[in-house]
Amino acid sequence: MTFEILETSRLKLRKLTPEVFDFVFTNYTNEELKTFFGLSTEQELEKERIKHEKGLATYNKSFLYFQLIDKSNDTVIGGCGYHTWYLDHFRAEIGYGLFQEQHKGKGLMTEALLPIIDYGFNTMHLNRIEALIGPENTASLQLVKRLNFTREGYLRQHYNHNGQIVDSVLFSLLRSEYKG
After folding, report:
1. Which of 68, 92, 130, 176 could pair with 78 in a Cys bridge, judged by C-beta atoms 3.0 to 4.6 Å apart?
2. Full pLDDT tens readout for the chain, 180 residues
3. ∠ at Cα 98 (96, 101), nearest 5°?
4. Assigned domain for 161 exists
5. CATH number, position 15
6. Has this prediction a pTM greater than 0.70?
């Protein structure tokens, strides 16, 4: 299988779709899967396997995810993409993260998000990109503001984070506002 790759100055962004997950889980060994996903433990791999087995997409909802691969050493350092893509409504929720602290605060997520947002509007034909962020996540709040997302609201007791029900701040970026 050939993987679609977007490139930035420091990163390769490898596109993952439901079809890619089907292929790698069918054809890769456990060690190859851990390397492919940038996982270090069997528990992390089992979590990915369960998500795949339970189904990551339905007839009207899907995902499109990009792995962040450091060009200097070809290792997966994080991910970014659209984990809740409502096909019928041309909108998706964006999510992102870096696996290790050593990669944070270097502008890598901004570097990754710019082409991924562009991909969302111009290739996926999204009209709206949403970001739901914990109110204490200062770095992420600053990131979406820098990228011209608009704060829309505050969702009380919105999601489960490590056994705690926590709030979210809702941001969005519309196609008509995008200055790509």
Report:
1. 68
2. 899 999 999 999 999 998 999 999 999 999 999 999 999 899 999 998 988 887 777 778 889 999 999 999 999 999 999 989 999 999 999 999 999 999 999 999 999 999 999 999 999 999 999 999 999 999 999 999 999 999 999 999 999 989 999 999 999 999 999 987
3. 145
4. no
5. 3.40.630.30
6. yes
